[in-house]
Structure formats: C-alpha cells, structure tokens
C-alpha cells in the first residue's frame, strides 16, 4: 500500500466501569483484543500493545509498551507507541472495540498512503481521524511521528483532552459517508465500544445475531 505502519492496541485503562479487563472479554468466537490484533495484522508491519499490566497480555506474543506518563489516559498510550514504533505512522484502536475489521484498517492505511508530501518532505497530514455518530473518533485513527512533540508538550503541561492535542496538528478527517462507502461498515458498528457490562451484553447479543444470520 505504499507505507509502513505499526498497529497499536490501546489497553492501558483500568476497566473500572466494566469491573474486569475489557480487552480479554469474549465476543463471538474470540477475545476482543485477539479480534483487533488479527484485523490489524493484515495491514501492519508490526503490532504493539500499549498497557500497564504486562502480565495480562504476555501470552499474546506481542511487544508490550508501558506509559511514560502513567495515569494520563489514552494520550499517554499514543505517546508511548509513537516513541516505540519503527515506522513513521501508527494506527491505534482502543481495546474495547469488538467490531473492528481488516477492511476498516485497510481503508485507513489506504487513506494515509494517499497523503501528499510537500517539496520539503513534510507531510500535509499528521493525523487521520474518522468521524462516527457525529463525533471525532481519535481512538481509532492514524498518527504520524511528527505529532509527537505536540503530544509530549500536552502531557507535560497536563492538557489531556484529545481535542486540544488534535487542534495543534494537521488533521484529515474521514466522514461517516466515506467510511460506509469504502468499507460497508456503519459508524455505529465500527466505533462501538464497551464501557460497562450493559455494553458488553449488547455486543455479545449483536454478534450472536449476526453469526446466526450468516449460518
């Protein structure tokens, strides 16, 4: 596809509202984190897991990276991933998104590959972010290494809102309409995330219904 990219699963949260590790919950035939890794692996050169519980994910056989700014949310996980990656771009997915697909990541990589480079060698885009359900979805997007200085400054100054960081970057947004046309996925499915037991129950029911319709 013309670019090299590292896949990153953001699994550094406490899962406090769920009451147990969201990444290791099973939806359909496999754990959510296995679904994400499998989908990313089709287009990424490498997969990293951003986590602060090293033992929880050791059996997955992927490199686990710890936050350098512990307790500061997903910004800290993206920061650690950008520092650890061996590629100029990373693509991230939160560990509680059970319905991500290889088509979704493939389209994200395709869109990043189409980014124009100026005569000075500078990319006109530092972040590729989808929009879903009328909201920016930064936990399922792609980030260029050049976004790292602004991210580190945000963390050092305690400005932890994703939108504040993105406001400092050259961001290209992917609309819901484009996403649906290119991947066939409704935003409500692509960006569905499990914050609590009710969300998990809904995900399991939705997956069971879809598997029943396919069988």
Automatic annotation (TrEMBL):
Name of the gene: mobA
Reaction catalysis annotation: Mo-molybdopterin + GTP + H(+) = Mo-molybdopterin guanine dinucleotide + diphosphate
One of the record's GO molecular function terms: GTP binding
One Gene Ontology CC term in the entry: cytoplasm
InterPro entries: MobA-like_NTP_Trfase, Molybde_CF_guanTrfase, Nucleotide-diphossugar_trans
The UniProt record lists the keyword ATP-binding: no
Family from the record: Belongs to the MobA family.
Alphabetic keyword roster: Cytoplasm, GTP-binding, Magnesium, Metal-binding, Molybdenum cofactor biosynthesis, Nucleotide-binding, Transferase
Location(s) in or outside the cell: Cytoplasm
Enzyme Commission code(s) on record: 2.7.7.77
Binding annotation for GTP: 10-12, 22, 67, 96
Binding site for Mg(2+): 96
Domain comment in the entry: The N-terminal domain determines nucleotide recognition and specific binding, while the C-terminal domain determines the specific binding to the target protein.
A biological process term (GO) from this entry: Mo-molybdopterin cofactor biosynthetic process
Classification via Pfam families: NTP_transf_3
Name under which the protein is recorded: Probable molybdenum cofactor guanylyltransferase
Cofactor: Mg(2+)
Function recorded in the entry: Transfers a GMP moiety from GTP to Mo-molybdopterin (Mo-MPT) cofactor (Moco or molybdenum cofactor) to form Mo-molybdopterin guanine dinucleotide (Mo-MGD) cofactor.
Domain (MobA-like NTP transferase): residue spans on this chain: 7-161
